[in-house]
Specification:
signal; disordered N terminus; two-stranded antiparallel sheet; Lysozyme-like_dom_sf; Lytic murein transglycosylase; 10 strands; alpha+beta
Length: 404
């Protein structure tokens, strides 16, 4: 016990030695050093991080108080308020043709450049190369986006004064394990302001679980290796249940006789049953033979005010990467456009402006009426959309499953 106390005291002293360029201590620097010494170091040591790694990576570290969403030391400050004045925008803003037209050529070039490697990745993990490239595009513009932050500093700051302190403490320890393992140097360990790292934007714990060394250089490098980046994305999706041989979904014409209140993965049925109800692909082609008897579900990101889709299980595997319908639809649509660069055939119709606060108030009212809206967060997921539709039908209206 005495030896352990001496080690902690030594580390606390070493952490107090600031680099020469930081002559003026910040408001929280002393508390931050105490937090590292008392909360992070023991947990990291228990997780197998060596004292030399801790000394090297934590010495002189200061919190970055410019990061968004911080609440104060110990997470005890007032949480950021829900922005009740923020304008609510329809999903159409995610799907501007200019975005896809900018990304498609780069994806096609990479598909040619890495043709043989992508084929090996697809064979090993079962994930189509176009899906891999589309996620890579969305996360970092195929590695072209700036990833400006020191990941260790971001994660330590969020563990010290963020809203999810325990979560980010775990991610900080994972980042220290990455550095100890030697996959990347501290200089290269860059992240977003939220702690997501490298070209595929993995959190450190995801890196430890899913990053792979596919180029055979002995390091899992999602910062500068295009090959490791692509393979790591594929491994992530495979480990989250990607169904080999199935697509993500299909744009369809949904007749008015099929209610939008039937949306959602918990309402899956064989695609053949949707066809029997009059659902057709917008392309005019039949559903592929290998899909027709497989399960699918209705997907209406903007209710009746936007394009309609039949989604497969793989749409929701993409959502494991980012819990957003619009994110997963962006990825699936971009993947399709590597082949034929065509926009959705269904229109995003003009929609009534509202606010996130107004949506939250509507969700609270719907919850009060017994609907499951998936949480009153001001965002319109499929449970909120179909609850709106049920309420509309109950009151004698045609269900649009959207606000307005």
């Amino acid at each position: 016990m005495i030896a352990k106390a001496l080690r902690l005291a030594t580390l606390a002293l070493s952490l107090s030695i600031l680099p020469s360029g930081l002559a003026i201590a910040g408001q929280y620097d002393q508390q931050f050093r105490q937090f590292l010494a008392s909360a992070v170091v023991p947990a990291a040591r228990q997780a197998g991080v060596s004292q030399s790694t801790l000394d090297r990576e934590l010495r002189g570290l200061t919190p970055d108080t410019s990061l968004p969403g911080l609440v104060g030391p110990g997470g005890k400050g007032a949480p950021p308020k829900v922005n009740f004045q923020a304008e609510f925008r329809s999903p159409a803003r995610y799907f501007r043709n200019s975005q896809f037209n900018a990304l498609v050529p780069g994806g096609r070039r990479l598909m040619q450049k890495h043709a043989s490697t992508l084929q090996m990745i697809e064979t090993r993990y079962g994930v189509p190369k176009r899906i891999i490239l589309a996620i890579w595009a969305r996360e970092s513009g195929y590695g072209g986006a700036k990833i400006p932050h020191d990941a260790v500093r971001v994660l330590a700051t969020r563990a010290f004064m963020g809203q999810r302190a325990d979560f980010f403490k775990g991610e900080l320890i994972a980042a220290l394990q990455i550095l100890q393992n030697g996959d990347v140097s501290r200089k290269t360990l860059r992240s977003s302001w939220g702690g997501a790292m490298g070209q595929p934007q993995f959190l450190p714990s995801s890196f430890l679980k899913y990053a792979v060394d596919f180029d055979g250089d002995g390091r899992r490098n999602i910062w500068t290796s295009e090959v490791d980046t692509m393979a790591s994305i594929a491994n992530y999706l495979a480990k989250h249940g990607w169904v080999n041989g199935r697509d993500w979904g299909y744009e369809v014409r949904l007749p008015n006789t099929v209610s939008c209140t039937r949306e959602g993965p918990d309402n899956r049925q064989p695609i053949s049953k949707f066809v029997a109800e009059g659902v057709t692909r917008v392309s005019g082609r039949p559903f592929p033979n290998h899909e027709i008897n497989q399960p699918g579900n209705i997907l209406l990101p903007a209710g009746r005010y936007g394009p309609a889709f039949i989604a497969t299980e793989n749409f929701y595997v993409i959502k494991e990467y980012n819990e957003s319908d619009t994110y997963a639809l962006f990825v699936g649509h971009l993947a399709d456009r590597y082949g034929s660069n065509k926009s959705f055939m269904g229109d995003w119709k003009p929609m009534k402006d509202t606010t996130r606060g107004a949506v939250r108030n509507l969700q609270l009212r719907l919850e009060g009426d017994g609907h499951d809206v998936g949480g009153a967060d001001g965002l319109i997921g499929f449970k909120t959309r179909r609850s709106i539709g049920v309420d509309q039908e109950k009151n004698g209206f045609f269900a649009t499953c959207w606000v307005g």
